[in-house]
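Fig. S4 source data, part A: sequence.
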Amino acid sequence: MWARAQDRELIVVHADGKQGPREVARHALTTPGQPRIVDEHYPPRPAGALERRPRAQGAEEEAFLAIGPGAQAWLTAAAAGGTSRLRRKVCEAVDLAKLHGHGAVDDALGAAARAGRFGEGDLAAILAHQHDSATVIEFPARASEQQSLQSSTATWEGFGA
């Protein structure tokens, strides 16, 4: 490999014995400390742990992963965090999905994964919180200024002047 600067470009040449020298890359020159990387010049990265998807190892895990993407995110994060008693928590989530529906439990599992909540009873607590916060609180209509019992702010008019 040879590299040479010509005008405002860096030219990289590869010389093998069969074909002779040939240009393999061209880059715009930059200033020191400002590298320029062209992704096309590198092979694709191999799939790593972040791209892996959980696969069911039995009927329990298959039922758990069928809950939805929140279940997959929870299982990935819980396993990465070294959570203990995963099988028990997976079975608990499947049971809760039978009671509350897949959508609600999937949302709770997604929230648990994002918050890093993998303890005993965390899923049930998140599910209960989501259920309680789903009720809409209605506030009474605000009284007009003429019907308000609050005293006037006229005494504050000269304050700070």
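Fig. S4 source data, part B ends here. The mean pLDDT is 80.
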